[in-house]
Amino acid sequence: MQLLQNQSTKFVIYFIGLSVLFNLGITFFEGIEGIGGTFDSAYYRAHIHLIENYRQFLLWCNQEFYAWFNVPTEKFGEVIRIIGGRTGIRLNNGCLGLGVLSIWIAFVLSYPLPRNKRLAAFFFGSILLILINISRLLILLYIYSNNIGANYPWIDQHFVFNVVSYGFILGMGYLLVRE
Fold first, then answer.
1. Cβ–Cβ under 8 Å, residues 61 and 52
2. What is the pTM of this model?
3. What SS3 state is found at 87?
4. Regarding beta strands 88-90 and 73-76, do their DSSP bridges make them parallel or antiparallel, or are they unpaired?
5. CA gyration radius for the chain?
6. Rounded CA gap, 97 and 99, in Å?
């Protein structure tokens, strides 16, 4: 196949294919975990629960951070709030940053890199994106608990997170391919 012999074309096709595949995978796992969802599985929800475990990890990170500063928080289900604060944040599936992570992983897997560079880019890039998401959640919890968010209703925190995250992806991608 002549088309796949061009390295750039091969990269674009693999990148788009993997991005679509990973996003479909996220949708599939959300469907499995949702009660009454398309692929509802009680066994999966009881024993594996990948997305819910990741959500609880992000919430736990927020609780631990605030605990370092002796700020009491409480977590119940998808919600975390500062005790005594006005409100908390609900961490639904759209707030997990899985779409951003899937784009980064698709980029790393589709770009021709040596194995050690690919593994390093995979782990460090993923950790950086997770830390950006945790930082966003920490800031949101502080803003909403102190009612600061009411002063800026026009700011869409998902949009800001996506701009920052994709900016980091572009920067990390540039650092990988500039050689």
1. no
2. 0.84
3. coil
4. unpaired
5. 19
6. 5
Check: CB of residue 14 under 8 Å from CB of residue 110: yes
| Tens digits of pLDDT across the chain (179 residues) | 566 678 888 899 999 999 999 999 988 887 777 766 666 677 776 777 888 889 899 999 999 999 998 889 999 888 888 888 777 888 888 889 999 999 999 999 999 989 999 999 999 999 999 999 999 888 888 887 877 766 766 677 788 888 899 999 999 999 988 86
d(CA 135, CA 86) in angstroms, rounded, equals 20
HSE-CB at 168 with a 13 A cutoff on CA atoms is: 20
**DSSP category for residue 153:** T
Reduce the DSSP state of residue 80 to 3 states and report it.
strand
